[in-house]
Amino acid sequence: MAKFFNEMTADGLAHTASAEIREHYREFCGWLQRQSTETMERKRAEADLAFRRVGITFAVYGDDAGTERLIPFDTIPRIIPAGEWKQLQTGLVQRVKALNMFIHDIYHEQNIIKAGIIPAEQIYRNAQYRPEMQGINVVSDIYAHIAGVDIVRAGQGEFYVLEDNLRVPSGVSYMLEDRKMMMRLFPELFARNKIAPVDHYPDMLLDNLRSVAPMGINDPTVVVMTPGMYNSAYFEHAFLAQQMGVELVEGKDLFVSDNTVFMRTTRGPRRVDVIYRRLDDDFLDPLAFRPDSSLGVPGLLSVYRAGRVTLANAIGTGVADDKSIYPYVPDMIKFYLSEQPVLNNVPTYQCRKKEDLAYTLANLPDLVVKEVHGAGGYGMLVGPASTKAQIEDFRQRLIAKPDGYIAQPTLALSACPTYVESGIAPRHIDLRPFVLSGKTISMVPGGLTRVALQEGSLVVNSSQGGGTKDTWILER
Fold first, then answer.
1. Where is the Circularly permuted ATP-grasp type domain positioned along the sequence (predicted)?
2. Which of 163, 178, 230, 259 is 20 to 30 A distant from 365 in Cα terms?
């Protein structure tokens, strides 16, 4: 068995009588040992049924069946002690603060380019760079109002940032629904463990969005803008709008008049001040970006440029979460904050560099190779889990377009005991905490833990068959 850090047991074994249980898991493990297999199976079936009734599904693009899938939910939580969470939180706040400063800088003074820290072409040739944003001032200089930062553990349990999601990060609804489900299935666990709450996230999100309304707006109208019911994350869009008590709108529900965005209502037009948009830049305004987009609002960019509406996240934010920019984030932290990074990046080879490409080509069977614009677990090679044919296919891709890829060592991601068909077994996990930036930077204690359900798999994405767990941050 490959060596990896086990979240629950200090000796890396599955949950067995001989395993040395980590201190913060002991209370839970004692409870788990008293539960029968029949009880846990019944609870798992109850969770699946409840999730189907509520409609917590995930549409997979390109799925031949054309149906929505239930994201598997595991009843064994991922538990993080208070001290570890404090370190994580400090590092996440630091990182997101620097990323916001970077985005402001590249659309204004461009000091980081002038200092020679990031090559100009890495920004200006980036597919997510939006020249339309040059010189536009946004409220409080905040661009990434909602950030989902993917965290993994490797080695002896060290935390690493795997990637930054700053465009339209998803998954927070599953974090909230997983917690609600665990409290419903096992209320006694919450009476016996000091678990930090997460259910106030929608209130925090609404307060955060209201705090970045345009100047002079004292009682802002906030809406959630969705591409529509066929989007893979539509459940989340509707869920967050309902939880915040705001309108869920599509582009056709909004229009621009007198350099102002309005929402159509049964009582007539109503001004909109803050749009939490869940669609990509390209589709926001057919007059400015893709003219064939039927999802956006004609004229929206002109209102935005005038500072008369706030978009969360800001247009052009994606340049900072592109995988080609990721290697520079530690340098951003040092440059803008004059601090050492609290959280480390995964070592990364930039295949656009001759020496990095040579190393990658020579070590493909041992590396993870990712497209710089890829997402969702697509467009990547996991060397140790790939066939010779797949490796050779990627070799040709790298030779043809080296600047389109980065490579990283294959980390032995930490694992957490998980209920699978054969019983309880370790499965690899990651964590996506959600960081809110407005007048302050805030986050609920926790995040979405994703789990790779296939034995040995390192791909946790829901679109690739991954599941989710509740994440407990202990308050003591």
1. 77-452
2. 163
In order of their start, the domains of the chain are 347-410 (3.30.1490.270)
DSSP 71-107: PPEEEEEEEE-HHHHHHHHHHHHHHHHHHHHHHHHHT
The DSSP symbol for 347 reads P
Q: Phi and psi dihedrals of 140, rounded to 5?
A: 60, 15
Look at residue 333 and tell me whether its pLDDT is greater than 50: yes
**Pairs from 43-52 (Cβ < 8 Å, separation ≥ 24):** 43/75, 43/185, 43/186, 44/73, 44/75, 44/419, 46/185, 47/73, 47/75, 47/181, 47/185, 48/73, 50/181, 50/184, 51/177, 51/181
SS3 52: helix
Give residue-wise pLDDT tens across range 47-105.
Answer: 988 888 877 765 544 444 445 667 789 999 999 999 999 999 999 999 999 999 999 99
Per the structure block, which two tokens stand in for 314? 């800001």
Q: What is the pLDDT at residue 334?
A: 98
Q: Are 8 and 451 in contact (CB under 8 A)?
A: no
Q: Are 202 and 225 in contact (CB under 8 A)?
A: no
Query: 420-442 burial, b if ≥16 CB within 10 A, otherwise e?
Result: beeebebbbbbbbbbbbbbeebb
For the chain, the first-to-last Cα distance in angstroms comes to: 33
CA distance linking residue 315 with residue 326, whole number of Å: 19
Tokens 């299935």 sit on residue: 185
Per residue in 298-315, pLDDT (tens digit) is: 999 999 999 999 999 999
pLDDT at 461: 75
Q: For 56-85, b where at least 16 C-beta lie within 10 A, e where not — what string?
A: bbbbbeeeeeeebeebbbbbbbbbbbeebb
Structure tokens at 301: 């960019």
Alpha-carbon distances of 205 from 127, 196, 348, rounded to whole Å = 29, 17, 33
Crossing angle (nearest 10°) for helices 82-106 and 329-337: 80
Measure the CA dihedral 203/208/214/216, to 10°: 70
